Amino acid sequence: MGGIEFLKGHGTQNDFVLLPDASGRLDLTAERVAALCDRRRGLGADGVLRVVRAKAVGEASEGEWFMDYRNADGSIAEMCGNGVRVFARYLIEAGLADDGRFTIGTRAGDRPVVVHPDRSVTVDMGPATITGTSVTAVAGSPFSGVAVDVGNPHLVSVLDDDVADLDLRDQPDFDHDVFPTGVNLEFVNLLGEGALRMRVHERGVGETRSCGTGTVAAVAAALHLAGTDTGESTVDIPGGRVVVTVERGAATLTGPAEIVARGELDEAWWAAAGA
Ligand SMILES: N[C@@H](CCC[C@H](N)C(=O)O)C(=O)O
């Protein structure tokens, strides 16, 4: 095999290695994903976005391209809101999308996107569904939360104390009976009407500087706690700001998406990383 092309990109500092693989030939093992995402022995990233034709991997999508998303630990997840924006930015820059409106297939279903002239991207995120309540504990301190399904699982806890003071270096506890496949944990401060601050501990990654599906979950949970299911909010995360709209059965996410670099993986490194 010749050199393997890669790109590096981020959306509000949630960063990804992109692997263009139109015909689905790459042997993308969990070991290779973890090696790529390692910030010392690899390129470093929160996740990998394999850019593959939907037909090549047998995915039913109205769009031509499928986002094969993997977490930094090599696990597979259904959706990544920041990843979809970066994926869309790549398709435009690579000349693989005709105009600024197209659909990207994901494991959580099709996600229509609009790429704006100011380089931000809006994603139709599908429904954000409140599924119940549960608890988490950070360094022994318990917090109750609202469980939200955005294609992937989330638990959103609204705190009175500043989320900046949380120690999210270790995996917070959660109820494995409620979340048998793990959960993304969001911690939120309400800043006033239509404005949230959030930190997140992502399933399969650890603390990240942003999580797009998490921001949608956070806004849906905050609206639910306020007794409504419709509204718009900014969400400030450590990596920047996004805007989320939620209404019954539909949500959108708007934020920046950047491609930072492109290059070729060393073949010997790739071979060894898969061993
Ligand atoms: N960072 C992503 C979410 C990635 C998947 C998540 N870690 C999971 O396992 O569900 C986002 O921007 O939504």
UniProtKB/TrEMBL annotation:
It catalyses: (2S,6S)-2,6-diaminopimelate = meso-2,6-diaminopimelate. GO terms for cellular component: cytosol. Its EC number is 5.1.1.7. One of its GO terms (molecular function) is diaminopimelate epimerase activity. It is found in: Cytoplasm. Catalyzes the stereoinversion of LL-2,6-diaminopimelate (L,L-DAP) to meso-diaminopimelate (meso-DAP), a precursor of L-lysine and an essential component of the bacterial peptidoglycan. This is Diaminopimelate epimerase.
